Amino acid sequence: MKKIDVACIIDDDPIFVFATKKLMQLTEFCNSFMVFHNGEEAINHLRPILMSGEAIPDIILLDLNMPVMDGWQFLDAFIEIPSSKTITIYIVSSSKNPSDFERAKQYGQVNNYIIKPVTPEMLHSIIESY
């Protein structure tokens, strides 16, 4: 089975982060992961990594509703950062609002919109489409 090298989780919910990391380990989804608790923290850490080309995440699991900088604000800032590598973003949210689904389609980097919780089947599907 294929494996993601570096996965990035951007979510403020510690229970979701813990469960997703555990699930990633159990399914051997990735070699390593980065975790950020809001969009601003993620941008501040990812910007220099993306610009240097070092240890760039292959995929990002992005929550929408977070304090400080939400997922939409993160996306708007993220797409402005030059990168030599394409990073696949999956929005992972509890929001079932149709306007969120439509808004996500406006971002070319967003591969899919996943309703929480993440399941082993979803992780396998992500690997297969990667």
Describe the structure.
This protein has a single domain (4-129), classed as Response regulator (Rossmann fold). Helix 2 runs parallel beside helix 3 (71-78). Helix content is 40%, strand content 23%. It has helices at residues 14-26, 39-52, 71-78, 98-104, 120-129, and strands at 4-10, 30-36, 59-62, 88-93, 110-115. The chain is α/β, with parallel strands linked by helices and 130 residues long. The model has no long low-confidence stretch (mean pLDDT 93). The longest helix has 14 residues, at 39-52. Residues 6-130 form the Response regulatory domain. One of its GO terms (biological process) is phosphorelay signal transduction system. Keywords: Phosphoprotein. This is Response regulator.
